[in-house]
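Forum > Structural Biology > Help requests

Title: Can anyone predict the 3D structure of Putative ABC transporter, permease component?

Hi all, first post here. I have the sequence for Putative ABC transporter, permease component but no way to get a structure on my laptop. I'd be grateful if someone could post the structure tokens.
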Amino acid sequence: MASYWTETRSLAGLYLRLLGAQARSQGAYRVSFALDALSAMLITAAEFAAFALVLPRFGAMTGQHGVAWTLGEVSLLYGLAELAFVLMDLLFGGFDAPNLSGHVRSGSFSTFLLRPAPLVLQVFGSDFALRRLTRVLLAAGIVAYGLSQVEVDWTAGHALMLLGSVVGMIAFFGGLFVIGGTLTFWTVDSVEAMNVLTYGGRTLISYPMDIYGTFLRKTFTYLIPAAFLSYFPVLSVLGRPLPDGLPVAAAFLAPLVGPALLAAAFAFWRFGVRHYQGTGT
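Reply #1:
Sure, ran it for you. Structure tokens for Putative ABC transporter, permease component below:
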């Protein structure tokens, strides 16, 4: 047990040193960093403002079964998805296909394999973009606004459900990043289909699932279980029934769905690393 903790502290120290190197390199050009951080925040701000300014003119967003969603309720759903995705992007940025494909194409991924340090740890520490912190702060602000606008008798269970939702989404989208990055071992370039699932999936779950058609909603519930990540937990917190007669317990599955996909993704990653042959560069 003592050796386990010693190794864990050693790996944590190495990871922090990698992040420190990333932070120092990004801070070397402060004006460029400030502009990047501002631009990153404006992406989320513009997207949120697009519906926050329009929705009040229509009163509410109404789904297929006549359920009306107020701006505060949609803001809570949107903010949770954005907060989880940006945190995931901050942590798993090294596995993002465009980043990893660059290492595969240039041959620098082979240097990762030769270093006397865990490969996964090196990839985790290869892209830690501090500019994304501004999006984290803005997303947290949107969540706070949504929480202040909904009428809910808050309990510890509600708080844990939303926390589990964020953790589940981080693991879920992190798993998609790992799968997309692993595919570049064979394709070299990133696969656009993965971007549809990753970025398209994030956009899809940012809004109430009942505004979509039945086929799309059922696809992202039973084939790709994205609805379990944030839509069901928010429905439960708001005191609304889950669709298709699903039990309330389904709203608690986010912390299981996300890590399950992440575990499968890292199994695929290990398979890919065993069969990695490089590009000859």
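Residues 29-275 form one domain. The longest strand covers residues 61-62.
Shout if anything looks off.
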